[in-house]
Amino acid sequence: MPGLETEVWGYNGVFPGPTIESRSGRKIVVRQANDLPVPVSTHLHGGRTPPHSDGYPTDLIMPKKGHDRLTGGHGSMDMGGSPRFKDYVYPLEQRAATLWYHDHRMDFSGPQVWRGLAGFHIIRDEEEDALPLPKGEKDIPLMICDRSFDRDGSFLYPSLDPTLESKPGVEDDYMDGTLGDVILVNGVPWPFMEVSNTRYRFRILNASNARRYELALEPGKAPFIQIGSDGGLLGAPILHRTLPVAQAERFDVVIDFSKYDIGDEVTLKNRMGEGRTEDVMRFRVTRREKDDSTVPRRLSDMAEFDELEESSANRTRAFRFTRVGDEGKTMWGINGEPFDPGRMAARPALGSTEVWQVKAAPASHPVHLHLVHFKVLSRNDGEPLPTDAGWKDTVGLSSGEEARVLVRFEGYRGRYVFHCHNLEHEDMMMMANFEVT
Ligand code: C2O
Ligand code: CU
Q1: How far is ligand 1, taken at its centre, from the CA of residue 307, in Å?
Q2: Which DSSP string corresponds to 76-100?
C-alpha cells in the first residue's frame, strides 16, 4: 500500500513468486528450500506431476528451526528427519498452458498463500509458438487476488494462531472464507497499465483465497477474446462480455485496444464486488502502434478433445461438497467426510475416463482435481456455460449448483487430492484423496 511496507512470505522473497517459464516435454527440477518458520508443501496447480512432486498436503518441507514446537493440526506430520529442502521434479508432459504454484500445507494453505506463497508457471510449446498471437511484452500474466492490510501495512488474516505453528483455522466469522478489501494485480493494489491501441494477451488467474470475480471491461467497446482455459489453448476463440472467474481458474484472453480511442481509460471491473472491490485495474490507451498480431480462427488441434465423449466413460461417481460436523465443530467435507489422508474416495485406473458429478452446497465451491484435466459436460442438467469451454482443472460452482465433468486419468499412478479451492474450506477439510491405480 502507498507509503507502507508489507512483509511477505515469498518464493525467493518476492510476491508473486518468480514466474517460471518452461517448455512442454522438457523436464525441470525446482529445488525448494524452506527458510520460513513453518512447514511448507508446494503444489504446481495444473501440472501433470508424479505423486512425489505434487505437493501432497502432508508431504512437508520442514522449517529451519523450532519445528519441535509444531504439532500436526488435523493431520499427522512426519516430525522426524524430513529434509529442509525438496527437489520437485516436473516432467511437464503436457500442452502449453498457464499454471501456477502455491503452498499446500495441510490445514494452513489459506494463511500461507495469503502471506505470499503463490507464483506463475507458464508452459510453452511449438503449437503455440507458431500462432500469430500477441507475444513478448504483450503476453502478460495477471494474478488477481484480494488482501486486507493492517494499519502498519502488514497482511491481515483472521488466524486462530497467527504464528501458524499449531492451531489451524480461522475465527468463526470467516468459516465461509476470507475476503480482502484491497484488490491486488501482480501484487499491486488497483494498478494502471499504459497500452498502445493494439492486441494484448492476458493470462488471468484468480489467486484469491475465497473471492470470486465477474470481470468486465468498462467501457465495453471490446470483448474478451478467450483463447485458452486452465489446460491450454481452446480449439477456437470464444468471445465473452463478462468472465466469471472462480478461485484458481485461469482465463487466457486477448483484448483488442484498437477498439478504443487514444486517451481512453478502460477499467477492468469486478461485477461481483462491492465498493472498492468493484475495481480491479485500469488500462490507459496512450499511443498508436502497428499491430502484427491476430487471433486465428483455429487455435489448436483439439481433435482429441472434441472426440472425447461421455460414452467413453468407464464409470460415474458423485461427490457432494457440503458442511459436515467433526467432533461437534462445523467443518467442510466431501460426501459427508472431512479430509483424512488415510481414506481413499476413488481408485480410478490409469488411462480410464470417468464422469464425476460434483455438487456444491450450501455455499459456492470451486472444485479442483490434481493431476488431471477434464471437460465440463453439463451444469444443472443443462448446457455448460460458454466460459466452461476447454480443458479445465477447476470448475466453479455456486451454491446449489451441480456439474458433470468428464475426467481422463492420465499421467501417473499414485495418490492425489481433489478439493474445494476456497482455501479456508480446504483448510477446514473439504478435500479427499483419489488413487490412480
Ligand atoms: Cu491450487 Cu490443490 O490446488
Ligand atoms: Cu468450498
Answers
A1: 28
A2: ----SS--SEEEEEE---S-SEEEE
Please identify, by atom number, the ligand 1 atom nearest to the C-alpha of residue 55: 2
Computed over every residue of the chain, the mean pLDDT equals 94
Tell me if 121 CB under 6 Å of ligand 1. Answer: no
Q: Tell me the residues surrounding ligand 2 (ion) with CB < 5 Å.
A: 365, 420, 422, 425
Grid cell of 55 as nine digits: 505437493
pLDDT by residue (tens digit) across 350-386?
Answer: 999 999 999 999 999 999 999 999 999 999 999 999 9
Q: How many residues appear in the chain?
A: 437
Beta carbon of 115 within 6 Å of any ligand 1 atom: no
Pocket lining: 105 vs ligand 1, CB cutoff 6 Å: no
The pLDDT value given to residue 71: 44
Helix (H) or strand (E) holding 330: strand 329-334
Residue burial 333-352, b: 16+ Cβ < 10 Å; e: rest: bbeebbbebeeebbebeeeb
E strands present in 132-249: 139-147, 182-185, 188-189, 192-196, 199-206, 213-218, 224-229, 232-240, 242-245
Which of 312, 159, 131 is CA-nearest to residue 237?
131
385-397, pLDDT tens digit by residue? Answer: 999 999 999 999 9
Residue bearing the CA closest to ligand 1, atom 1: 45
Q: Report residue 262 as a C-alpha cell.
A: 487514444
Distance of CA 174 from the midpoint of ligand 2 (Å): 12
Residue 3 C-alpha cell reads as 507509503
pLDDT at 231 over 60: yes
Ligand 1 and 248: CB distance under 6 A: yes
Assess whether the C-beta atom of 370 lies below 6 angstroms from ligand 1: yes
pLDDT at position 245 is 98
Measured in Å, residue 176 CA sits from the centre of ligand 2 at 8
Closest C-alpha to ligand 1, atom 3: 45
Q: Please determine, for residue 78, whether its predicted confidence score (pLDDT) is greater than 50.
A: no
